[in-house]
Amino acid sequence: MIYVNTIHSPWARILVMNALQQKRSFGAVNNSNVSDPRLIESMLANLALFQRVPRANVATIASHARVQGAPRGTVLSRQGEMLPGILVLACGSAKLSLRLRDGEEKVVRFLSAGDTFGEAAAMHDRPCPVEAVALEDSMVVLLPPLPLLRLFEVDPQFARNLARTLADKFLNLLAELEAALRYTALQRLAAYLESLAEPNGGPGTWIARLPASKTAVAARLGITKETMSRLLRELVDRGLIVVDRRDIKLRDLQGLAQVAH
Q1: Helix (H) or strand (E) holding 106
Q2: Is the pLDDT of residue 58 over 90?
């Protein structure tokens, strides 16, 4: 079940409330449209893909979009299958992963509200290279490729935004590959916790909230759950962190950074 008061994004909250006002349960929203394209337009206008794109062009894309509910565990895309378009996570969270032949899972990215995925596969008409699964009750906006391709041809700003988005993701992937080759598992874990750090009340207090289960985070870092538990205990023994389920209190952020680098 999804609770409106836990959704921090204003436009995502409006989308969910609109669906609820139509007397649909969250699960029943799946494969159905939220009727007002103006809500979708407002959401799209806040995405990096549509920054500085004329509002009329954003409205055109919004008129073709579909909003779908995705209860926890829903497979949003399957590895090797064609995508119906670019997917925008309006609220909730999801993971992108590779399924290897031996059944092992390699999580390549976690998605949160406002993230997009599938740009390269959808725009290039290629099979999706990863599997996408909702980690909690979520809401997804589907942008079909044909209207986006037309916009790409006539709107230079959208074309630049798309190119920048694809370039950023490619460079991030290379950076992660480099980290996997150059740094130890402990360094990668410390760097990951450092990247999640956010203020936690008083001055100098920090917390890292894991976006998924420890099993999924371990797969994201290329290690086993058992190895991750052992490394967390090592950081605890060093006095750098305190583990409280998915909340990791960072007692010494500077010390954690030194481990990471």
Answers
A1: strand 105-112
A2: yes
Mean of the per-residue pLDDT values of the chain: 87
End-of-domain residue from the set 181, 197, 227: 181
Give the Cα separation of 239 and 45 in Å (integer). 44
What is the CB neighbour count within 10 angstroms for residue 83? 23
* Residue 157, token pair as written in the block: 């700003």
DSSP state of 81: S
Query: Which amino acid, residue 4?
Result: V
From edge to edge, which strands make up the β-sheet containing 131-134? 75-77, 131-134, 93-99, 105-112
Residue 95 CB partners (closer than 8 Å, separation 6+): 107, 109, 110, 111, 132, 133, 135, 212, 216, 220
Q: Give me the pLDDT at residue 14, please.
A: 52
**Lowest mean per-residue pLDDT among 97-111, 159-173, 210-224:** 97-111
- Answer yes or no: do 57 and 160 share one domain: yes
Fill in the DSSP letter of residue 129: S
Judgement on whether residues 205 and 164 belong to the same structural domain of the protein: no
pTM: 0.79
Crossing angle for the helix pair 55-64 and 145-154, to the nearest 10 degrees:
160
Domain end among 151, 181, 211: 181
Domain around 37: 4-181
- The span from the first CA to the last CA of the chain, in angstroms, equals 40
Task: Verify that 242 and 146 share a domain, yes or no.
Answer: no
